[in-house]
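note to self — DONT lose this again. spent like an hour looking for the file last time. sequence + predicted structure for the chain T wanted, 804 res
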Amino acid sequence: MSGAIRVVHLLRRRVRILIPALKGDGERLCLLEILLRKHGAILDIKVVAALGSLAIRFDPRAMPAENLLTLLNKVAGNIARAPRASMGEPDRLPDGAEGEVCVAVEGMTCASCAALIQMSLNRDPAVRAASVNYATATATVVGVLDRPALEARIRALGYEARPMDTLSQRKLIVERERALVRESRRRAMAACLLSLPVMVIGMAMPRSRLWHLVEFALTTPVVLGAGRPFFLRAWKLARNRAANMDTLIALGSGAAYGHSVSSLLAGRHHLYFEAAAGIVSFVLLGRWLEERAKGKAGDAIRKLLDLQPPTATVVRGEVEVVVPVDEVAVGEVLVVRPGERVPVDGEVVFGRTTMDESMVTGESMPVVKGPGDAVIGGCINGAGSFRMTASAVSQDTVLAGIVRMVDHAQAAKLPVQRMADRVSAVFVPGVVAVAGATFATWLAGGARMSSALGNAVSVLLIACPCALGLATPTAIMAATGQAARRGIYIRNGEALETAAGLTVLVFDKTGTVTEGRPVVSHLRLEPGFDKASALALVAGAELGSEHHLGRTVVDFARSLGIEPVRAGDFSAEIGRGVVARIDGHEVLVGSRTFLAERGIAGGDAVPAGQTPVLAAIDGRLAVTMGISDRPRPTSADAIARLHRLGVRTIMATGDVEEAARAIAAEVGIPEVVAQASPAAKQALVAGLRAAGEKVGMIGDGVNDAPALACADVGFAIGTGTDIAIEAAPVTLVGGDIAKVAEMIELSRKTMRIIRQNLVWAMGYNTIAIPGAALGELSPMVASSAMALSSVSVVTNSLRLQKAG
């Protein structure tokens, strides 16, 4: 066996492999998936083309794991190579292979914190790329750095890193975030209550030493108590030769407090206790409001996490045991009672019930479930009790995938944010330099020490880059959360930005513009063939097909009481047809062109608007079928809405010209490219992009995957195949293409709000720093303005949650 296949996850019933040679090669991976699916022991396959990975669920009784690995080598040929088995998902990838590690980061107080951590990680030779997002409090690293090493590097900088691999771990992080918000509120309220009388006394400017001692007594617990975390973090950073906004606050409030204490001991009357207390109080109040607002922006993740129940009832031996959901293993039998949420993905083995699957399908009508039916974790059970076997747990569940998708999108950094990140990275050192220059200039100009110090402190405080750092990520969080509530799951943030500029949308037809429930409307049997025998062979050839039309042929045969005969050998040309050998017969099923290329001509024309499917047995035309599919009820309105947005629409389909144009005319798509192979669809998208268009592609089938991956933004129909969903950065739950128009509108509004936020944040700092340096702003005014600038940016972003 060769060495290009690497097993990264191997369990009793599941194997996950990486094939570096096929990374990004969606079409060849599609073919590999189709060839593997014909083997009865393989129950399910999920492909991630971008990573070159396959997750395979198999029956170990029918095919032991070692036989499966041998099969992979046989099917994939020289592309698939021998694995190095590894039990479980390793934190450190072997042989220098790169992996992605994501952790939650606690203790970041502003955008400069994120810039500092990111800069430090990117200097590590074990890291190829690091991204730290202040708004979502996450760090994502691509490289050979393992999780413990990543956590250690973050802790060395004075921050805390926590794992977020499972939904339970994400829930713990959310609970800690809520606790931190409560702690922020407590600190802010205590500081404000103590600071208020200090400010009143300071404005009265008493000369009595007794009032000065009262100021000292009230200010000390504010600065050294409530403000203690600022000094601790500033000290840790200083030991690492780094600085952030906490450094500025510690310098500002510490300077004001220290100057006041020394003046009090010396018997002088120029005290700044009110400034020291006010700085800490206003910053704490601003951070509490900011954390509270950021929490609202993250509501989508919290609601998704709440869908998974914390415990599951597992049958072990003959006893029902309630265990934490993370302890459920693949293959275990679970009991789900009426009204409970399904803990993990699995299959019903006993009982019947109805299930609310609107979380995944977008459809509110309950779905009947019985033995053999799949159930999805997070969905709500109806009135019946049932038993199920767990087929996917922890990070392999559908719900975990959705949470990962939203997490990834919210943590993404858009191109528009890069400038803000660069500014934040150099901001703190620059501000300290400006503050030092301000102090020296005022002293040189003859000002008193207290005045020069006050102006320098104002510069330190007013220049906080928090608003700049929050401008983009808070808008992304609010927008992706709003999209998720509408059934639009965005895999990466760049798709959100790019969708605003789309000029062309390319639609697949079957299952996208149409309902995807085609039926055989016309059937002609050629002389000399028995209907039952012919259809059994034709349907048997299509059993291994992932195409909508292939499944329609199988369903049609079964509706007539004809059971398909399983093929002994099978191959497919995606989007064109299949060739199978069944009981000594060669069976070809596909388009007229597919058969004509193999020397088989003829076949009656089918009625207008229907798709012809021809079948030949042993080199002779045997069956001609006409298959029809209705447009989705929302398709015409969705196309009209896109046209009003100025987006050009094109239908690219493997169907024949007549059927394609009939559907296109019905829904209002003016341009049609018919009989398009997967390569032709990809070439169409690539050609449009080369002509300067921003192209979106919408599809649901294996044959759409190359074009979805090639487009500027790929939209996968949520009811489509796994590979189409994996190839596209956006998934539309329930298959409603009207959601594409919603996504474009939301994207355009998001970009407007991001631009507003950036203009405000940069304008604020541009105006405020010179004002503070010129002595026009007191330290108290500076700290309150700094806090309000961050809150205003977050509040502006939250308008996206009400986007209609």
